[in-house]
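Sequence of Asp/Glu/hydantoin racemase (Paenibacillus planticolens).
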Amino acid sequence: MQTVVAIYTGQGLADPLKKVFQELLPYIRLVNIIDDSLIGDVVRAGHIPDVVTRHLVQYYRHAEELGADVILNTCSSVGDVADEAVGMLGIPIVRIDEWMAAKAVASYTRIGVLATLPSTLEPTLRLVGRKANEAGREVQLVNGLAEGAFDALISGKPEEHDRLLLETAMRVASEADVLVLAQGSMARMEKALEEATGKPVLSSPRFGVEHVKAILEAAKDAKSSS
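Predicted 3D structure, token representation.
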């Protein structure tokens, strides 16, 4: 049985992502590592502190010891750490948002990136820009920071979070061909934002699991043909 270890910096995405795994990869062993102190440290610092990097690398190594065939890094705010850690391990690390960013630049020119935290917005903008360069595509990135939405959510006001996100999406949609949701936890708003803005909306959880599935299937094919 192939094993995937998903690493979370918060609680909110674990259950929704488990459902995607059950749909697309029902026969794998899924192990979750959740440390919800990490995103708090990132938000307070406004960047990825060294202590968060150290802890994440420790979790990646722990995942390898658990027998992971693939590690899924589920937090876009710390995606840069996943990129840097790839060469340290003998197994793949998948950024949950990598295939989403690749899809956006392959299909659209004006890309609006929605986020509720600057610490998530900036890494996602960098990732989309890098994917555009790799693909030889010129794209226009539109900043979609929904200020105050994250504070509303952690204060127990999900309706206020959704209202601020929707207002930001409507503003950005006038300048963009597609809306990209920087945080996997925003995926629950995907359909509502599509209906309100009339623009396609991309979220990362399904893309991330599809990326993991492709790697696992390629490994299985390589093993069977050897």
